[in-house]
Amino acid sequence: MKILRDLSLAIRFLTIIHVISFPTPNNTNQNEEALEENFANSMAFFPLVGMLIGVLLVALRRIFYYLPISPLVGDVLILIVWIWLSGGLHLDGFADSVDGFLGGHNKEEILKIMKDSSTGAKGVVALVSLLLLKFVLLV
Prior knowledge:
74% of the residues lie in helices and 0% in strands. By secondary structure, the chain is mostly helical.
């Protein structure tokens, strides 16, 4: 049951897929330390979840290959599905990191910029560049 709970947590964290949440023993008053331990244990399943996302995207790309659409349109759709499926989690983190590292002069400023909910111009440029690179690598 612990393995299913950790796998479920990894899937729910890394994707927008809603899977059943497996309760832990004594779930009524779970302290923060136990929650952190559950999340730490779920990290072992992150590569598996990434592989499942990749397999899904490859299968979708194969389907697009047989449809009467341009391969470029198919590749754009793959990127859109990937962003949708992951909820843009990594893209948001990437943009925040670029904003922080390029906009801050010391550790406190960097962390303050990274925690800000708005994305700056440098983050947007980096994000567009990253998505263009991903598109070119798909083609």
